[in-house]
Write a structure and sequence with these properties.
8 helices; about 220 residues
């Protein structure tokens, strides 16, 4: 036996509602017009004087209340806008803290200890005649890049993750950092099979140098 369909209530007829509204407005207008005619008939005043009294009553009794409410609502709106703006500022700061979109100036300053001993080691390695030390120079420079990114407030399991969170406007040498880091990854993955000549090694170290100079680490 098929289930019985749920009985639906009567549908609203908008046409009837509109007609009812118009009739109601017409009734109010008719009553008001009749009342006005009676006031004129009873010599309470002319049409113009009756309207003048209505306007005077509105201006004297209702309008001051409207003005007061407008002032109160305006003041409340100003307070509300100020509160919302401050809240939004705090939310933006919290988002920056979570997603690493701002630099911790104090942490970056701690890396700037001229002369930078870590960078001096990188320079010593890259100026060596031993090709193995050229790779070591790039690896140690990459470690310095990791320290810099974390000091700037970026978070991630790897340097690649942190670089993805960087806004280009906050990190002018972001492309240099990416290019140098990719070479470091090839050194780490390929090991001794990765062919790195002196010219290429110095070029990559120069990319790291550009990054560190932007943030005044060296």
């Amino acid at each position: 036996m098929p289930p019985k369909k749920k009985e639906e209530g009567p549908k609203s007829d908008h046409f009837v509602e509109i007609v009812s509204l118009l009739l109601g407005l017409y009734f109010i207008w008719a009553v008001f017009s009749r009342l006005q005619d009676l006031l004129v008939y009873w010599r309470v005043g002319s049409y113009d004087s009756i309207w003048a009294r209505i306007i005077a009553a509105f201006a004297g009794n209702v309008w001051p209340v409207v003005e007061f409410l407008a002032v109160v609502l305006s003041a409340a709106a100003v307070v509300g806008i100020t509160y919302v703006v401050r809240k939004m500022g705090k939310i933006i700061e919290e988002e920056k803290a979570i997603y690493g979109m701002h630099a911790d100036v104090q942490a970056v300053d701690e890396l700037v200890t001229p002369p930078n001993r870590k960078w001096e080691k990188v320079v010593a390695h890259i100026n060596s005649a031993n090709s193995a030390e050229w790779k070591l120079a790039i690896i140690e420079a990459d470690i310095m890049l990791d320290d810099l990114l974390r000091a700037c407030g970026y978070h991630g399991d790897s340097i690649g993750d942190m670089l993805k969170a960087v806004e280009p406007s906050d990190f002018l040498t972001i492309e240099s950092a990416w290019e140098a880091h990719k070479v470091r990854n090839r050194i780490a993955h390929d090991g001794s099979t990765f062919d790195l000549n002196e010219r290429e090694a110095k070029r990559v170290v120069a990319l790291y140098e550009a990054v560190f100079k932007e943030f005044k680490v060296i």
